[in-house]
Amino acid sequence: MSQLIQLSRHSYVYRGFTIHKCPRNSATMKAAYNVLSDGNYFGRDFALAEAMQTIDKLKVNGE
Questions:
Q1: What CA–CA distance (Å, rounded) separates 29 from 12?
Q2: DSSP code at position 20
Q3: What average pLDDT does the chain have?
Q4: Where are the domains of the chain?
Q5: What pLDDT shows up at residue 28?
Q6: pTM score of the predicted model
Q7: Where are the alpha helices (DSSP H) in 1-63?
Q8: Per its UniProt record, what InterPro entries does this chain match (predicted)?
Q9: pLDDT tens digits, residue range 34-60?
Q10: DSSP state of 46
Q11: Any residues with CB less than 8 A from the CB of 62 and at least 6 apart, and which?
């Protein structure tokens, strides 16, 4: 299993991808997480665990 590394309050690295935590939506009070790698955007998830699962799926499909 790969390790999640927290770079700052809003940035994480997981399996070579960057996960950026966006500000909370004022209406729903939920935060979103953008998945990025080498300048490419791979989507938005609404939980850190979901963002990690998205990266795991991308890695499995890419190998």
A1: 21
A2: E
A3: 92
A4: 4-62
A5: 83
A6: 0.87
A7: 48-62
A8: DUF4761 (IPR031881)
A9: 999 999 999 999 999 999 999 999 998
A10: S
A11: none
Give the pLDDT score at 61. 84
pLDDT over 90 for what percent of the chain?
A: 78
CA distances from 9 to 15, 27, 40, 62 (A): 19, 22, 22, 29
Q: What are phi and psi of 12, to 5 degrees?
A: -135, 155
pLDDT for 25 equals: 85
Question: Which amino acid appears at position 22 of this protein?
Answer: C
Buried-exposed string 14-50: b where 16+ CB fall within 10 A, e elsewhere: beebbbbbeeeeeeeeeebbebeeeeeebeebeeeee
Contact by Cβ (8 Å): 35, 54: yes
